[in-house]
Structure formats: C-alpha cells, structure tokens
Design goal:
The chain is α+β, with helices and mostly antiparallel strands and 412 residues long. The protein has one domain. The protein is built from five helices and 18 strands. The radius of gyration is 20 Å and the shape is globular. Bound molecules: 2-acetamido-2-deoxy-beta-D-glucopyranose (4 copies). It holds the Pfam family Neprosin.
Length: 412
Amino acid sequence: MQTDFVTMAGLDPKHITVILLATFSVILCAEAVPGWEKLSKEEELDLDRQLKLINKPAIKSFQTEDGDVIDCVDIYKQHAFDHPMLKNHKIQMKPTTIPKGIRNHESETTYKSLQYMLGNISCPQGSVPIKRATRKDLIMARHIKSIGFNHPTNTNASTSGIDEGGHHYAGVAYRAFVVGGRANINVWNPSVKVNQFSIASMSISKGPKQQMNNVQVGWGVNKALYPDGSRLYTYWTGDGYQKTGCFNTLCPGFVQVSTKIHLGLNLRPVSTYKGSQFHIAVSIQQDNSTGNWLLTFFNEYVGYWPKALFTTMADGADYISWAGSTYSIITDPTPTMGSGHFPKEGGYGISAFVNSIQIMPNRFYKFVSPLYYVLDTFADVPQCYDVIKNVAKDPNWGAYIFFGGPGNCTFQ
Ligand SMILES: *[C@@H]1O[C@H](CO)[C@@H](O)[C@H](O)[C@H]1NC(C)=O
Ligand SMILES: *[C@@H]1O[C@H](CO)[C@@H](O)[C@H](O)[C@H]1NC(C)=O
Ligand SMILES: *[C@@H]1O[C@H](CO)[C@@H](O)[C@H](O)[C@H]1NC(C)=O
Ligand SMILES: *[C@@H]1O[C@H](CO)[C@@H](O)[C@H](O)[C@H]1NC(C)=O
C-alpha cells in the first residue's frame, strides 16, 4: 500500500480522481457490509499486522461512551518510538519555556465540560492514553493520506475555483518566520457524508510543496472515522504528504506525554446556531532548546512532534494558517464548513470563528497578536465558503476570523 501513495502522488490530478473514485467505492461497499467481506484475506491480515504494531500492550483501558477504547500505554513503549529516527530518544516531559502572552480567560465559549473531559481518563503514572486503532481507522486514514490533505501551503492559495482533489479552504495565513501559534477554534459538527471531511485547524509549515513539513491541530468531522461528531485531531508530514506523517498516533511520530488528553478526543458539546458557543484553545510552539514542536490543548501539554521528524521545519517555519477546510469527491456536492453559515450572514453564534489568534514570530518565546495587515485571507471558492478577518480592541477577542459556508457546491 505504501507504494500506492508514492505512485499516486506522482500522477496527474485527473488520474488521482479516477483512482479515488475507485477506492472510495470500495470503502463504501466495505461500510455497507459489516465484517469487511470486501477485503481480501491478505488485506485483512495486513491490516491486522499493522494494528499489532500500532496498538501496544495496555496497562489499563477505558471504553468511552462513543465506543472508543483508550489504552494506557507505557510512555516509553508508545508507537512513536518505532520510528527509526527516534531510537534512544529522550522524552521531553515539559516545555523548556512556558511562553508569555497566553491568555486563559474563561468565557461562555470555554469548554464548561473540560474538567469533565479531563476527569474521565487518567492513566497511571508512567503511561499515556492512546486511542486504540481499528481496521476502519487504517482504511480511512490510508485514503485520506493518499489524497494529500492539501491544506493551504506556502504556495499561493488556488484561485482557479477548484483544485484537483476537491479540497476547499477559507482562512487566514501569516507568511514569515514563525516558531509557534495559538488560537481559540470555535467547535461545530458540520454535516458531512461518509467519504467527506470538514475541519477547522491551525497549521504550521515550511518547505517547497514536494517536501513540505507540516504540523496541524484542530477539530475534524469524518463520518467513517468518527461517526459521532467533531474530534480533536492532529496531522503531520515531513515530505509533502508523500510517505511520512499521519493522523494522530496512527504512525510513529507524535510523542504523547499528557496522561489525560488523547488525540481523537470527542469534543462535546458543540456550538449551536444562535445558541451556546464552544471552542478549543490550541497552541503549537517549537521548543527553544530541543527544537521539538510542542502541542498544548487548553493548559494541558499534550505531547510533541520531535525535531527529528522534520527537514525544513528543524529550525522554525515560514507559514501558519487558521482555516476551515473541506474535502469531497469531485462529483459530490461539497459538505458544510464551520457552522454552515457565511460570515456575511453574521458573526458570533452565526458563522464559525477562530479568535485570540497569536503568533510567536521570534525566539523570545512570547505569543503576540498579529497586526491586521500581516494576515492574508484566502478562500478558493468564496461563493461556497468565505472568510473575513479583523482585530478587536478587546484583547480577549484579539485577531480573529469568521469563516465557513453551506457548501453544497457542485463543480461538474
Ligand atoms: C465520564 O464518566 C462519567 C462517570 O463515570 C460518565 O457518566 C460519563 O458518561 C463519562 N463521559 C464520557 C465522555 O465518557
Ligand atoms: C505568489 O504570487 C505572487 C504574485 O503572483 C508571486 O510574486 C509570488 O512569488 C507567489 N508566491 C509563491 C510562494 O508562489
Ligand atoms: C532561547 O535560546 C537561545 C539560544 O540558546 C537563548 O539565547 C535564549 O535566551 C532562549 N530564550 C528563552 C526565552 O529561553
Ligand atoms: C443543494 O443543492 C441542490 C441543487 O441546487 C438543491 O436541490 C438542494 O436542496 C441543496 N441542498 C441543501 C441541503 O441545501
């Protein structure tokens, strides 16, 4: 299968679409037929072999209401350390520097249930919570990976109206040296079909498209992977989405440190139209002394992507974006993004927001609010998904965007 990604990455866009249609119909059949009868015996065995590598022995396990199994795995035996670059890796248990400028204001939009979310899963000392991977995770992740997950890169945003994979975006970007960023991302549960996704994320990258290094965090909805709604997700790549990288902890790379917050966490409740609003607070920063890219969720240090995974992002990055993004196969109407409402229809409670956008533009380890003009807005199909940016006088709101739209656009 690995070879397939490589081959597909080299194909021209028309061929990719054809292959995708073929592979997605396989998934859909598999979805429809319980027990994965559509997979050959060899494919099943191959998936099981992979799962055996990914899922490490559990010291203790939790079953969530959504049916996920969360395993507490010995922190030194997690799948991350199967990465050849991470032999004899020294785990970074704490950030070297706690950045200045982090605001921890409580507001209506803060997760009232965060304590509840944090309280439920707590792994014994020396172990960390990792969502147990399933065959379905691998099948979907494989296809999502193979389509490149083209988050806006440091090439110019497409203006042609449609790009090859049926990816669409609306957000803002800062294009200059950067070692970190943070934001509050308003959480929704947009309507998507089984072979579509809709996400909102903060994404940091560097490098030419073919070798792009990228780390991203946000919420995502994908009916096959997460049938029950919006989840905390991460993604990384060290080579332009070709051979390296994956969602969450499905491949060796991300080192989990928190004993409480796992990747793939179900985010609830979600915001409602003209009703209560909820957000997640996320930050990513490159550690001053180790060069690792550290992930924080609210005040919890979740873990990190080791410096060794990256080529161009070993020393800082040159692009950071905050955006909504959708994917659908090209013949389908596109899914909704954010709340499903355009920014022009209204702000808070109507369209989705990202606020308190902050960047760490140098090695002084301070998050600062970017000035209005340094954020570039991009929206590849503004008639389907749009974005507006502004900087509020209220420091709790700061630099922000409203983004999204109803989708349901067809391009063929
Ligand atoms: C958390 O634990 C409480 C008490 O055991 C339970 O009622 C609740 O459903 C759990 N929540 C989740 C999200 O699993
Ligand atoms: C983006 O577009 C501008 C204007 O067309 C061009 O000058 C610049 O080089 C482009 N940047 C990249 C990274 O392609
Ligand atoms: C970051 O590292 C540099 C070089 O090692 C050092 O000069 C600087 O003081 C460090 N900054 C902080 C905030 O620790
Ligand atoms: C999507 O667009 C089609 C064709 O314009 C329309 O018939 C349908 O009602 C729309 N669906 C939604 C959910 O708006």
